[in-house]
Amino acid sequence: MQVIISSDPQSVADRASLFIKRKLEKNPQLILGLSTGSTPLKLYQKLINLYKKQLMSFKTTTTFNLDEYIGLASDHPQSYHYFMKENFFKHIDINLTNTYIPQCNQKQNPFLIAETYEENIKQCGGIDLQILGIGRNGHIGFNEPSSSLSSKTRIKTLTKETIADNSRFFKQGEFQPIQAITMGMQTILAAKMIILLATGKHKAEAVQKAVEGPVSASCPASLLQFHQHTVFLIDEDASSQLKNKSYYYHVDDLTQKIENLYRLSDI
Ligand code: PGA
């Protein structure tokens, strides 16, 4: 596990975009796992800019999103389908048939949808690089505290805290979903590489628990400590409760020196 602390949210996005760019250069058929929420917005904007400057193309990339609310139509402004289209997909050259997001309206069978989603990921050969955010309660995707290490894509009931955190996106009186379909912990941990983005002081406690706390289902992000290639890409504010900060700076400094020296493209 590597912890990279950047000065501010824009530097976090810049650094994350560099990882994705390098991966795409090596493998244009990259299977990219994506997330929604406020945190990755700057990253998507950066990737769009790189695409517009013809420095990146997503023509042969396949994407899998982490999660989607149950009960919202895909054109609902708060659905993650809508989010991805508006904030990323419609601005780049991706083939929309290669963009997967679990979708479940009230008439569909969520169990079947979850199973099919898991199967789709398998058929594509698994996720090469998964982008994650983190909830204040340590959730990743919608894997709320108590999520099992061996969980796969499934229905998850949201905690009160997550519902309250996400209520800012819904108008007063508007229907706000309380359940979602989410990739499971095992699904996420099967990705070859994972980048978790976190910015802001409100994420500092969750980041500290995930990076330095005991591995526990009470903080699902802490299960990433078991993963062989996870990078926590965070800003100063989100790093403010970490105890071993000087070590993380030191490692990043040396890693960058080695990278420059040997031109290793995916450290
Ligand atoms: P946020 O959500 O980026 O909107 O803070 C992150 C998450 O809940 O995973």
Describe it.
With 267 residues, the chain is α/β, with parallel strands linked by helices. The protein has eight helices and ten strands. The strands form two sheets. A seven-stranded parallel β-sheet has the order 1-10-9-6-2-3-5, with helices on both faces. A three-stranded antiparallel β-sheet has the order 4-8-7, covered by helices on one side. α7 links the parallel β9 (193-198) and β10. 42% of the residues are buried. The mean pLDDT is 95. The structure holds 2-phosphoglycolic acid. 2-phosphoglycolic acid binds next to loops.
Helix proportion:
25-40%
**Broad structural category:** alpha/beta
Small molecules (ligands, ions, cofactors) in the structure: 2-phosphoglycolic acid
Q: Which segments are poorly predicted (pLDDT under 50) over 5 or more consecutive residues?
A: none
Radius of gyration: 18 Å
What is the averaged pLDDT score? 95
Strand content: 15-25%
C-alpha end-to-end distance: 11 Å
Number of helices: 8
Q: What characterizes the major β-sheet?
A: 7 strands, parallel
Compressed to H and E, one letter per element, the order equals EHEHEEHEHEEHEHEHEH
Number of strands: 10
The dominant shape is globular
